[in-house]
Amino acid sequence: MILPAVRDFKDIEKLSQSTYKQCVILDTHIGHLGNILGMLKDKEVFIHLDLIKGLSGEEAAVEYIVQKYKPYGIISTKTKIIKKARQLSVKTILRVFIIDSSALKRSIAIIDQCDADYVEVLPGIASKVIQEVRQKTGKPIIAGGLIDQEEEVKQALADGAFAVTTSRRELWQKFESKN
């Protein structure tokens, strides 16, 4: 399953016309969020809170976004944001960067601590890490980062990823009928 990640209005327009039911909003300004969500009103939208310009990384930002925009879910690298979003009854994706064995160990402890609904592992091409995090935490894993080839999507899914996030529109189109 592909979870389209959008960064600009051109991609938002294309996604709004697709059959995808879920998506991720990256890199936008708080002032544009209402328009973006209006264009994607028939989608279950995850908002990557850390990448929304004009917001702080505090729990109050989560409350504001959830109350004002009512997203399907929140993505963050911060445990306090994930915990607050869970309290507000929205789906959560904890994003972790696994760059070495120390980061892997730390990430597993953080995953257990904040109890997100999903875990996004970056880079998503790290098949060994996808398998290990899934086995040790029991959480559905989303592979993201550096995935730009069809074979990489297939490999991440074969390695046990629940979904793959990508901003590559060509991959959205290739996998759209499989969602």
Describe this structure in words.
GO terms for molecular function: RNA binding; transcription antitermination factor activity, RNA binding. Keywords: Glycerol metabolism, RNA-binding, Transcription, Transcription regulation. The protein is α/β, with parallel strands linked by helices and 179 residues long. The chain has a single domain (2-178), classed as TIM Barrel. 42% of the residues lie in helices and 23% in strands. The protein has eight helices and ten strands. The strands form two sheets. An eight-stranded parallel β-barrel has the order 1-2-4-6-7-8-9-10, surrounded by six helices. A two-stranded parallel ribbon has the order 3-5. Helix 4 (79-87) links the parallel strand 6 (73-76) and strand 7. Helix 4 (79-87) runs parallel beside helix 5 (101-114). The longest helix is centred in the middle third of the chain and has 14 residues, at 101-114. It starts with a strand and ends with a helix.
Key features of this structure:
42% helix; transcription regulation; TIM Barrel; 179 residues; alpha/beta; glycerol metabolism; eight-stranded parallel β-barrel; single chain; globular; GlpP; two-stranded parallel ribbon; 23% strand
Tell me what portion of residues adopts beta-strand conformation.
15-25%
| CATH evolutionary superfamily | Aldolase class I
- The CATH C-level name is Alpha Beta
Outline: globular
Runs with pLDDT <50, length 5+?
none
Sketch the major β-sheet.
8 strands, parallel, barrel
**Count of separate structural domains:** 1
Strand order of the largest sheet: 1-2-4-6-7-8-9-10
Termini separation comes to 5 Å
Mean pLDDT: 95
Number of helices: 8
The H-and-E topology, N to C, reads as: EHEEHEEHEHEHEHEHEH
Q: Determine the fraction of residues in helical runs and give it as a percent range.
A: 40-55%
Q: How is the CATH topology named?
A: TIM Barrel
Structural class: alpha/beta
Number of strand segments: 10
What is the alpha-carbon Rg in Å?
Answer: 15 Å
CATH architecture: Alpha-Beta Barrel
GO biological process, one term: positive regulation of DNA-templated transcription
Protein name: Glycerol uptake operon antiterminator regulatory protein
Pfam family, one: G3P_antiterm
GO molecular function: RNA binding; transcription antitermination factor activity, RNA binding
